[in-house]
Write a structure and sequence with these properties.
heterodimer; A: mainly beta; six-stranded mixed beta sheet; four-stranded antiparallel beta sheet; 30 strands; B: alpha+beta; four-stranded mixed beta sheet; 5 helices; 63% helix; 10% strand; elongated
Chain lengths: 418, 203
């Protein structure tokens, strides 16, 4: 149960156990604010639990009174925590000033090494407490895993709640869902630009499938409305360019365009269907779907050499909807076989293929969190398709949010969306 | 300009001519036979009044008959026009309602499909002012992305065939709806088969 000799907690390996962590209620000064004490502490609890890295210890087993114990551990009383199995402890204290201002101190301790790992102080309005908590959690995750960006990211998806398919967005943890389009027709395939500032998507607003590029905040933008279909936008990492499926030259192929809608290069040329592009994080390779071999399979194109090689080989299954991990090493995709669709992950070189969902209906449209630790997808395991998340290991699969209608096609933003 | 003047002259003469013949007809009705001789004795006067009454009744009877016939002709014409309109909208409906179906994951035209398209082409030749939108649809197996592309392949195949048998491409537009507008919502082979289709919408 203790830590290893190398004094490092690395929680990014597939087989690692979850870290037991204790998050007692926060101390408030003055002491008569149980809403803040519990509210902020629960927020932190939920945020860290979301990552799937931690085993959250039950508060009923705690031996200390949250209002009175020393949150700075200057008395060294870690044994009360190690005794119940906590390897990590987070303590918080909130000073409540007048006119809704607070000062929040948050500390992360390694209880076995009796060490303070992170100590931060935040000042702001009471209503900013979620932002303070999320920032602290970002530091915690960065320290433990080297990953950044999860808690500031957003997820875009398609929902039929209004009766039509429209694009919606929500926070990384499913909170604050918002309707983004109101085209009252069919909207599909949302895709975030690499800086999180633009959303591209396909809409039938003008009675045919065109790609709209809209600024996330003020909705200004461009339309790509070439003859035929304009679908599956995928932004090139670090550039103001995107690839998309267009058919204006007679067959369904993938093209490269500027963010103003100018076509710069044709990327695929076969007479069948080529669609669903996804970029490697260095922008040098593109995975996509092609039916050139008879059934839809995933191929990888090297942009420099131009070569295209096949990644998935099981012809009895349709392998589609590839999504390249921001870490660059793996590709998630959906694999359809006899009425069931499952999420699978495979190394970009074809190594270590594994299946992450089983016996749970249709699981489609995987998309990676910006730190490569989680995958969002849609699943019909409860009936109508809803948005689910899981760790990259396939654990902790749960529904992200509850909205009326069907939710499909989720896309996780590449980084913080402001 | 000269032509117009010429036309006005002709019209003038036609109208004048008509007026002339009309006034002539009037004069004929007032012929001596209908006049009453004020100097005749009672029986003679009564007799001619009787005859006049009979004649007047006969004229009125004829007029009523003519009016009835005119109304009947009018009705028949209207009925014919309605029937023609109904036939046309039935044809348009038939044109729209008859769809072309595809095999799973394929966009090729079957023999039946081509027969249906031959009929559609015939109808389009008889209605040269009509343009048509060909919609390509898919069943919901497979992904939305792939099905949007497949739906377009289906619509394109139909358009190519119609052009090959002589319908100008300018009268045909294609749009793909992928799996987004299913006709039926079932998860069985017969429902899926109904959704793998091309539809025809007249503009």
């Amino acid at each position: 149960m203790g830590l290893e000799e190398n004094h490092e907690i690395v929680i990014d390996k597939p087989s690692i156990k979850k870290l037991p962590i204790a998050i007692p209620l926060f101390k408030t000064i003055p002491g008569n604010r149980p809403d803040l004490s519990r509210g902020a502490s629960d927020m932190l609890w939920n945020t860290l639990e979301f990552t799937g890295y931690f085993k959250m210890l039950d508060r009923n087993t705690f031996l200390e009174d949250p209002q009175t114990f020393d949150v700075t551990f200057s008395d060294g009383t870690f044994h009360k925590w190690t005794r119940i199995g906590a390897e990590l402890v987070v303590t918080g204290s909130i000073w409540i000033k007048d006119n809704n201002m607070i000062e929040m101190e948050l500390r992360l301790f390694d209880s076995f090494k009796k060490q303070l790992l992170i100590g931060k102080e935040y000042r702001g309005w009471i209503k900013d407490q979620q932002r303070m908590v999320r920032r602290f959690c970002s530091d915690v995750i960065y320290m433990l895993s080297g990953n950044r960006g999860l808690f500031e990211s957003k997820i875009a998806f398609v929902s039929t709640g209004t009766g039509n398919k429209e694009i919606y967005t929500c926070d990384f943890d499913g909170q604050n869902p918002r309707q983004f389009t109101n085209d009252k027709n069919i909207a599909l395939f949302p895709a975030w630009s690499w800086d999180g500032k633009w959303l591209a998507y396909t809409s039938y607003k003008r009675r045919k499938p065109d790609i709209y590029i809209k600024h996330y905040r003020d909705k200004r933008g461009t339309v790509i409305a070439k003859k035929g279909i304009n679908t599956t936008p995928a932004w090139l990492p670090g550039k103001s360019m995107l690839s998309a499926t267009l058919s204006f030259e007679g067959s369904q192929d993938i093209y490269l365009l500027t963010d103003k809608g100018r076509v710069t290069k044709r990327l695929t040329r076969k007479w069948g269907i080529d669609t669903s592009p996804t970029w490697s994080p260095d922008g040098k390779k593109m995975a996509f779907v092609s039916d050139r071999a008879g059934s839809p399979q995933i191929y990888i194109k090297d942009l420099y050499s131009g070569t295209e090689r096949r990644l998935t080989f099981d012809g009895s299954k349709y392998n589609t909807q590839p999504s390249w991990s921001p870490k660059g090493d793996q590709i998630a995709y959906s694999s359809m076989e006899r009425g069931e669709i499952n999420i699978r992950v495979i190394g970009f070189d074809g190594r270590s293929p594994r299946q992450l969902t089983y016996n749970s209906g249709k699981n489609e449209s995987p998309s990676w969190s910006p730190d490569g630790s989680m995958i969002v997808f849609s699943s019909t395991r409860e009936g109508y398709p809803k948005i689910y998340v899981m760790t990259v290991r396939g654990t902790d699969q749960r529904r992200l949010l509850s909205l009326p209608g069907r939710q499909t096609g989720p896309a996780w933003s590449p980084r913080a969306v402001n | 300009m000269k032509r117009k003047l010429g036309m006005i002259f002709v019209l003038f003469f036609v109208i004048a001519g008509l007026m002339f013949t009309a006034s002539c007809a009037k004069k004929q009705i007032l012929k001596p036979g209908t006049e009453i001789d004020s100097g005749a004795d009672d029986i003679q006067t009564q007799g001619s009044t009787q005859a006049e009454r009979v004649r007047r009744n006969e004229v009125e009877r004829q007029k009523a008959l003519e009016e009835k016939r005119r109304q009947e002709r009018e009705q028949a014409r209207e009925q014919q026009a309605t029937a023609e309109r109904e036939r046309q909208s039935f044809e348009v409906a038939a044109f729209k309602n008859e769809k072309v179906y595809f095999a799973y994951n394929r966009s090729a035209l079957s023999y039946t499909a081509r027969e249906i398209l031959d009929r559609k082409a015939e109808w389009m030749r008889n209605h040269p002012n009509v343009s048509v939108v060909i919609e390509g649809h898919c069943d919901d197996r497979g992904t939305n992305e792939y099905n949007l592309a497949l739906g377009e392949k289906r619509a394109d195949t139909v358009k190519t065939y119609l052009m090959r048998i002589g319908i100008p491409g300018g009268r045909l537009t294609t749009v793909s709806y992928g799996e987004e507008r299913p006709e039926v919502y079932g998860q069985d082979e017969s429902s899926w088969a109904k959704n793998r289709r091309a539809e025809f919408v007249t503009e």
